[in-house]
Structure formats: C-alpha cells, structure tokens
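User: Fold this; tokens only.

Assistant: Input:
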Amino acid sequence: MLKTIKNKLALSLIVSILLTSSYLSASDTHVFGQAPENISVSETAAQVFTLDQAIDYALANNPDLQIAIERIRQAEARLGMALAAFYPQITARASYEHSNNPAQVFAMIVAQRDFDMNSIQNINSPGYRQNFRPEIIGTLSLFRGGQDFQKSKAAELGIDAAEFERSTVRNALVEAVTISYYAYLSALEAKKVAQDSIDAISSELKQTTLRYEAGTTLKSEVLSLDVKLAEAKNAEISASNSVELSKTSMANLLGLQHAQSFGIAKTSGLTVPHLPASFDALLELAMTERPEVQAAARQVEISERELKAELGTYLPKADAFVSYGQNSQTPGFSGHKDNVTVGVAVEMNLFSGFSTKQRVRAAERKVAEMRETERKTRLAIEQEVKTAFLRLEEALARLRVTEASVNAAEEALRLVNEERRAGMATVTRYIESEVARNKAQSNSIAAHYDALSAEIALKKAVGDWK
C-alpha cells in the first residue's frame, strides 16, 4: 500500500515540476500550520483548500499558466507587427551638408531656389556652401508578392496556437492538482493506520511485558511484539514523509512559497469512478478535443503560410513614396523654398546568391517537420488515452478486490478475537489480525483514491478541461 502511495506521489511531483489541474465538500480539515476559522482562497496567514478551491487557486496563481498567458499576449503583439505592413510608414528627418563639390553645390543652389547667371560662371569653383533640409517622408507598400498577407495570417494562427498551448497547460495543471490532492489524503490514511498500529501494539506490548514479568507468558511473545512495533514505527515514518512530499507538491502547483501555511480540507465522502465510454469513443473525443492536436494543426498551417511568404520573394515589389521638405542655407523654414517629391518604385530581385532558394527550401522542410510533429502528437495522445483507460480499468478492479478484502479481514479479526478469548490464539496472532484489518481498510481507501486519480488522468487524456 505504501509503495502505491509513493508511486502516486512521485507522479504528482513530476507533473507539477513539468509544468510541467471536484467533487469534494469540506468537513474535517488537516492543516499545515495554524488553521483559520473559515475555509477561503483569500491571501491569509493560513489557507485551507477544498479540491475545487485548490484548482481555482492554482489556475489563478500557478506560474506555468501565467507564462502561457504571456505567450498569448506576445502572439497578439506579433500580429500587430505583421499588420503594420499595411499602413503607411511616415518618417521625419533633418539633414545638414557643407561641401565645395561642384556637383553637390550646384544641386544645393538649384534646390534652394538661388540659381542665377553667376551660378553658371562659378560652376567649376563654387566655393563652400551649406544646406539644411528638414523633410517628412511617407512610404506605402503596394505589392510584396503576398508576403505581408501571408505573414499576417500566420500571426493570426499563432494566437490560436498560443491559446491551445494555454489550454494544454491548464489541462495538465488541473490533473496535477487533483492527483496531488488525492495523494495527500491517501498519505494521511496511511499515516493514520501506522499510528493506530503503533497504539495497538504498544498497548498489547505493555500488557504482555507485565505477564512475562509475572511468569505467565514467554519472552518470545514480547520479542515478537517488539519487532511488530518497530515495523509499525517504520511505516509511520514513511507515511509522514509522504505527507510532507505531497505538501511540497501542492505548494508548487498552487504557486505558494513552501514556508507559507496552508491546509487541505478532507472530504466527507468519495464518489465512485466509472468508465465513461468505450476506448474507441474516448479516442475519437480526444482527437477532437485535445488542445495539443489543435495546436499542432495550427503549427502546420503557420508553416505553410510562412512558405508562401518566402515564395513571394520571387515576385516584384512596388512601393509608393512621398517626400515634403525644403532646402535652405539657414535652419529656418520658408514656404517659398519647399519641395515635394512623389513617386512609385518597383524592384525585383534577379539574383541573391541563392539565398532566396535556400530560404524557400528551409520553409519547405519546416512544413514537413510540423506535419510529422502533428502525427507524433496524435500517436502520443492515442497512447495516453489507452494507458489512462487501462489504468482506470485496473484501479476499478483493484477497488473491488480491496473492498472484498476489508470484509474478509474484519471477519478474520472477529474469529481470532473469539479464539483468543478461548485461549486458542496467541496475542501475536491477534495483533497481526488487527493490523491486517487496518491495512485492508487503508488499502481500500487508497485504492479508491487511486481510482479517482485514474479517472482524472483519463479526463485529462480526452481534453476534459479546455
């Protein structure tokens, strides 16, 4: 039983680190630290969580989910950057030149509206002249081979992919919180059994020691009880460690500092899990609902859009532009010396050293990679659904077995108790029967928690918490 608990705790810890998420009502509580009067998810010195409250708190505070939300915002910003290509680009600029180069000086004179006959006479030796030019330049992309359109569509798909990735994190977080919650309650049951066994064995050891000192029983009975007591104490140590491990796991998932005091509300009753449908029906549902599948499909579409954008570099580009400014020997602005330039520029890349060809080739390989990633994702989900389905079947079967073992252990304890009263059973035999009954009850409860955890894993496998 303890081994099962440890395995489940290990699973919950691994899931909580990876990330990487209710059926219970609050009655009795077990608190790490000082217990508050009211169960609340508010920021208090000590917080006590039901399963629903723990899930809600984790969804609001877990850093993995916050990281996923920030990635969505990054994707939205990338879409804004892609759409900027459809708007005019306006730039303000001011320049200053000082030269005696005849060609440049002649251009300055003409642009400054100062050309006269003396300018012709001094054209070869114009001397130094300066030019101030403040201007505003506007450009508008008319055609870029469809690159801007394809990149904007890829950015839109990027937002969808980020949303699905957030759903993936949410799915895993709900599963991890629930498994850790049940692991904690299961560890508490194991600790309670160990403590009950210690109390029972200690009491019987005290009585047996008195009888041994009185010469009415053998020393072997005392020694046997000493061994049983040591085993029970060892089990209690392991169970206490499991409780602390589950506490650490929950704190990590809830986004709490480990030093913070918080507690978990124990349930007053457990629902009985069941298989919701056949494996084929669940697999079909998973392929439709799992956000990982949809995210992988979006990545394929994004890579296809990026490939089309790269192919657009083979086509010509056309840009419209307008420039308004003035040329003057002084910084002041004069409306008599302003000038406007309007035009359209068309260009086409004839040879780029094969860089365009290689970019297209890389984009084609990216499409192939994303398609294989999508296929891999589908195969992994199929395996996950099958594993979760089989584990739930196994957990339900084990639950039925442990429930039957409880009845058998209770009947065995009753018979041994009667034999002991008749002097036909040793005290060691009675203690073994009592401990076996306690373990059977604990195993039954642990099996119930295992079944609930398996049910949660199956819900996550089919994408129940998008």
